[in-house]
Amino acid sequence: MSVGADAGDGPSLLTQVRGALDSAGRAYEGTAAAAEVAELVRRLDAPLRVAIAGKVKAGKSTLLNALVGEELAPTDAGECTKIVTWYVDGIACRVTMHQQDGTPARQVPFSREQGAMDVDLGGTPAEQVDRLVIEWPSSSLRSMTLIDTPGIASLSTSVSARTHEFLSSSDDHLTPADAVLYLMRHLHTSDVNFLETFHDQEFSQPTPVNAIAVLSRADEIGVGRLDSMESAERIAARYRTDAKVRRLCQTVVPVAGLLAQSGSSLRESEYRSIALLTQAPAEEVDRLLLSADRFGRDSLSVGVTPIERQHLLDRLGLFGVRLAVSLVRDGQVRTSTELSEALVARSGLDHLRAVLRSQFAARRDVLKARSAMLGLQALLRRHPVAGGEAIAGELERVSAAAHELTEIRLLNALRAGSIDVKPDEAEAMERLLGAHGTSIPARLGLPDSATVDDQRAAMLEALGRWQRRAENPLSSREVADAARELVRTCSGIYVRLWE
Predict the structure, then answer these.
(1) What are 80-113's pLDDT values in tens digits?
(2) CA–CA separation, 253 vs 356, rounded Å?
(3) Phi/psi of residue 287, nearest 5 degrees
(4) Are 207 and 240 contained in the same domain?
(5) How many CB atoms lie within 10 A of CB 375?
(6) Which residues pair with residue 15 across a beta bridge?
(7) Is the per-residue pLDDT at 483 higher than 90?
(8) What is the pTM of this model?
(9) Sheet strands side by side (includes 85-88)
């Protein structure tokens, strides 16, 4: 049962959607559209699909590697970066190519050079490939399929168009992604425009609830200074209060992708190089660290050759090298394992993973259910069938009655400014709706360690507050309706706390 659902509400949202799909399966049995219904059922049972999008050189592949915990996605400008590539958990390592002309999918050979996958397309032009599916045994991919998309704002309009087509939606097209991570270095008009292409004011398609913006390459914002991530967090905090950004995505998280990727796979030899640098005269090393060019090319003898220093730059970036030297020099870390953990912690990756868990994984069922509903609605429009009107009516009933979807619609309305309330009241509403996490403590504004008694007290206070707001004759109709839905959310929390 959802936190916000009432006791006795009956079957879960996912169960009701599965029932509609079962009805559709019977209605379309023996027709060409039966395969589409079967695909919607498979999608409902599969891990959540999260697409990673952004401009060229935004760091998409680097972030994907960091999230998987292994260097798989190529980060150069090769042919495969022009293709939508799915990374899924599998029992064996293999790559399957799907072509746009409907040719049966086939496995293709691959190799790994310096970690990244090098896929052999066998002479097939990249523009003729619909997608690549890379299966790789990974615990990170068991609950979440990651989809790497070509960069937008590319010099090649056809490459950019692939991502727009993949993520945009229409009445007859369902985006394959359940949620989106959008990477940006700074917020430009093109970023807002792109987010708007796959944003929908209704519960279908990516909305503030299932879109997260990532301030990528965050360490470059502060020009590689040791306080770069603090600077990036301040900028992200400003974006989080921007009305346009709030309307289009759930939150903005700063991440130093290169540091996250390389920090998680730090090698013992790299740690030894850092340790040698800390043993050289501090003023000489600090002088080398004034710029990337000087650090990688200066012939000054500090126990680490220019070639080895350039390798460190390629792996960690200037910010990462400066940070690693500082951590080892100050005695905060003493082993390669400790340095690896410290670099990942400073990269912002752990924070992003926490957001993914609280916003995407915790809403997995509702995100997948609404994707299935939208897909089935589109199928019914494209291929009318006997009994289709009854199925469409059932979907409308489920959509109207499911409190999980009502919460999303209400959250979207608050983010869009459609409900006229004061900022502090809007913040309280959003928090109760799960904007900062869907656990009971997060909804009530309490720490995860809060006792059940503390949670019950906070819930009763919230319940009383929104009951009074709903019954206040001075409340507008929109505010009163919103307050009544919040009372229902509190009722669901009440049931959970006394189970």
Answers:
(1) 778 899 999 999 899 999 998 888 899 999 888 7
(2) 11
(3) -65, -40
(4) yes
(5) 23
(6) none
(7) yes
(8) 0.81
(9) 106-108, 94-99, 129-135, 85-88, 144-148, 48-54, 179-184, 211-216, 252-255
Q: Which of 267, 439, 236, 438 is nearest to 348 (CA)?
A: 236
Which neighbouring-strand residues pair with 183? Answer: 54, 214
**CATH (domain of 130):** 3.40.50.300
Residue 198 has pLDDT above 70, yes or no: no
Instruction: Read off the pLDDT of residues 287-327 as tens digits, 9 standing for 90 and up.
Output: 999 998 998 888 878 888 989 999 999 999 999 999 999 99
Hunting for tokens 């967090």 — which residue is that? 233
Domain with 494 in it? 421-499
431 and 301 together in one domain: no
Q: Which residue has the tokens 């004011």?
A: 201
* Residue count (the chain): 499
Angle separating helix axes 388-401 and 364-382, nearest 10 degrees: 150
Helix (H, G, I), strand (E, B) or coil at 214: strand
Three-class SS state of 108: strand
Instruction: Give percent of the chain above pLDDT 90.
Output: 44
Long-range contacts of 495-499 (CB under 8 A, 24+ apart): 495/1, 495/6, 495/7, 496/1, 496/3, 496/440, 497/440, 497/452, 497/455, 497/456, 497/459, 498/456
Q: What angle do CA 350, 353, 357 make, to 5 degrees?
A: 140
Query: Is there a single domain that holds both residue 265 and residue 247?
Result: no
5 within domain boundaries: no
**171: nearest Cα among 1, 380, 336, 25:** 380
Q: Confirm if 213 and 245 have CB atoms less than 8 A apart.
A: yes
